[in-house]
Write a structure and sequence with these properties.
four-stranded antiparallel β-sheet; 115 residues; alpha+beta
Length: 115
């Protein structure tokens, strides 16, 4: 399901190092995270999703859709790898698809603390 390179111990150690290098905003990009076959399945799930536009002018404007139950295995794989990289256990999370079009946005705000 996940690209086998991301399961290797040496890759995980490199990702951990890269993630923690930037102290002010730790981040990394995981390219080709899923195998081509799984990526095709994910695209199919996204095409079937029913998006609804949500707008709060001072915070965000985008479309959102519920995640189908078929996607739960992907979420568990993603959470497992992320928790290893960031050295924190990821507990219960609320997941959904977000879709951004022209003039959509999301703003970061220190007063709006995300869980």
């Amino acid at each position: 399901m996940v690209n086998p390179i991301y399961i290797k111990q040496e890759t995980i150690k490199q990702l951990q190092t890269l993630f923690h290098q930037n102290k002010s905003l730790p981040s990394i990009q995981l390219h080709q995270f899923f195998t081509t076959k799984e990526y095709t399945k994910i695209k199919h799930l996204l095409k079937r999703a029913k998006f609804k536009h949500i707008k709060k002018p001072l915070l965000h404007s985008y479309s959102q859709a519920s995640i189908p139950t078929e996607f739960n295995t992907y979420i568990s794989e993603i959470k497992k790898i992320i928790s290893v990289i960031i050295h924190k256990k990821i507990n219960k999370t609320t997941c959904f698809f977000q879709q951004f079009h022209h003039k959509d946005y999301t703003l970061l705000n220190d007063k709006n603390i995300e869980p």
